[in-house]
Amino acid sequence: MPLRRGSFTRYSPAKSYVLGLICKARPDNLYAMEQDNALMRSLVVTLMLALPLMAQSPYEAIKAKDGLAHAESFADAIKVNIRPELRIKLTPIVAAIRFAENGGKGREYGILHPRVKPTYRSQAGWCAATVQKNYDRWTKAGSKGDFITFLGNRYCPVGAENDPNGLNKHWQKNVKKLILRLNKSI
Q1: What is the pLDDT of residues 111-122, one digit of tens each?
Q2: Number of domains in the chain
Q3: Helix (H) or strand (E) holding 176
Q4: What is the C-alpha to C-alpha distance for residues 3 and 83, in angstroms, rounded to an integer?
């Protein structure tokens, strides 16, 4: 709670310090910076959205985001569709895709194929199978370039007809960042 001092607002030392980092100003001189409240709120929201990924296994991150039942569906999709020797490597990719796609019910993993059922398990299964199949294609082709770029060109191609706003161009970068966060916990 800010303290009132004349017509200026005095922030707590912790909030002043964070605002000081954001504004590159000295923490003890931060008065009447109400416009920075919006920046602070957006920073807090961003951090809160990333919390499910911080220091958690892919399973725990999915559980924090989607609940226990969906985490179990995720685990089953991994078990059924990804070979045991590749699970440690590919599971974070499937979880990162879930966070990057952030789809609603029946589209959680962004799978748009007409044969996929609009269920969480079906979405997770098709995603895991797509990751496994494309990993096999990538290794068979000589593992040129990085795998996420290879996968993104098939899973979420830039310029696709179903991407009228051009959002697919962010997919590879987002998935790579999310994988790094998930891999820190493994």
Answers
A1: 999 999 999 999
A2: 2
A3: helix 171-183
A4: 58
